[in-house]
Amino acid sequence: MTEKSPPLLLSTTLMFTITTVVTVIGVPWYGWVHGFAGNDLAFMLFFIAANGLGITAGYHRLWAHRSYEASKPVQLGLLIFSTMAVQNSVITWASGHRTHHRHVDDRDLDPYAATRGFWFSHIGWMLRNYPSGTPHLDNARDLLNDPWLQFQHRFYLPLALLTNLGFPLAAGCITGHIVASLLLSGFLRLVICHHVTFFINSLAHRWGHQPYTEQNTARDNAILAWLTWGEGYHNFHHLFQYDYRNGIKWWQWDPTKWLILALSWVGLTRNLKRASEFAIQRAQLTLLFSRTERGLAQAGMSAALEPLKLRMAAEYETFMAALNEWTSIQEERYRITKHELQQHWEHTQIHQRLGELETRLREQYKRLLLLSARIA
Question: Pick from 44, 146, 198, 338: CA 20 to 30 A from residue 51's CA?
């Protein structure tokens, strides 16, 4: 017997239907008949960028994950433009996202579990009253204590209407093309911003590679990163969700990371959290070691590879032991710095020991990579 689907949520279904129909039919028709001016397109692109960064830097990295702190002016700017993106209040959005991370891929608990199919994780979870999508705000008590977020949560609908009509109308008054502005900066902008965000819930759990963990469906995808303001490095994010970065290499496209970092240079953001280099290497090596063992077991190991496998296992154990020692010394340094009870020479001793360990860890990491390449 087929399981009965939950009832449709009329408000979200109507919103997605109306905005899509107007965008697919109204925008091309108006463009064909009347055309769009360059400044109409410029305003639309500005609002797309402002909404996208409002969600990624605001809803996601600032409020959902607390990966950095922001000054009041930055918070206000992010709050205004993320409200315009029409993705529910910060409190509701962040609560659902925290639930997603805690129960990722669980069909019954993850609000937009990728294991329930592309359509469900992309948009279907918002169209029906699924139990997994019911907001539970117990995991967002820190946000409930913020007066700005309380205000936005309480008056979300009028604020969303005000920003979605007010900003396009203001742009239309400036350009003299009110209808064109409503179509481009209103409808088309909103549809693009919606689906760009939804790609992270759907495509980023199905398309790409997994360099850090195979414990969930999240994947890194450079193409998606270009479309989603840096959010496409999703495999890394699911393992190191507290990191303000998603793309950790200097060359990886992550404009959200660059914005947060640039604002820190002028004192507008602070306490930017980062996963340590060696924690990242540990994740990569753990996965690499697991894949190498799995590959050898499937292919059948020749006598020539047995010494390499034993050597790799020994190197891996040595790396993990050095990493545990490094972590212990870091904790010791934190205690000394926090309480300021020790003499200068003890700080110097700790820094020296850390430097030696970090050199060893880098060398062992390179040896492990070379060994795995030989075995593969």
Answer: 146
Q: Which residue is it, tokens 């593969």?
A: 376
Checking if the pLDDT of 1 tops 50, the result is no
Report the candidate in 249, 195, 184, 250 with the shortest Cα–Cα distance to residue 227: 195
Q: CA–CA separation, 204 vs 27, rounded Å?
A: 29
Task: Give the DSSP letter string of 281-321.
Answer: HHHHHHHHHHHHHHHHHHH---TTTHHHHHHHHHHHHHHHH
State whether residue 252 is helix, strand or coil.
coil
Tokens 């997605």 correspond to what residue? 16
Q: Which residues contact 126 (CB under 8 A, 6 or more apart)?
A: 9, 12, 16, 133
Query: What mean pLDDT comes out for the span 173-192?
Result: 97
Measured CA to CA, the distance from residue 180 to residue 187 in angstroms comes to 10
Place of tokens 């963990």: 213
Q: What is the pTM of this model?
A: 0.84
Token pair listed for 233: 């490095």
Instruction: Go through the chain and tell me how many residues it has.
Output: 376
Q: Pairing state of beta strands 69-70 and 269-270?
A: antiparallel
Q: What mean pLDDT do residues 109-127 have?
A: 96
Q: Count the helices and strands in the chain (H runs, E runs).
A: 17, 2
Here the tokens at position 249 are 């290499």
Sequence-distant (6+) residues with CB within 8 A of 352 are none
What average pLDDT does the segment 49-54 reach? 97
Rounded-to-5 percentages of helix, strand, coil across the chain: 70, 0, 25
**Tokens, residue 25:** 């039919």
- 156 close to 11: Cβ distance less than 8 angstroms: no
Distance (Å, rounded) from C-alpha 208 to C-alpha 204? 7
Contact 64, 98 (CB under 8 A): yes
Count of CB atoms within 10 A of residue 78's CB? Answer: 24
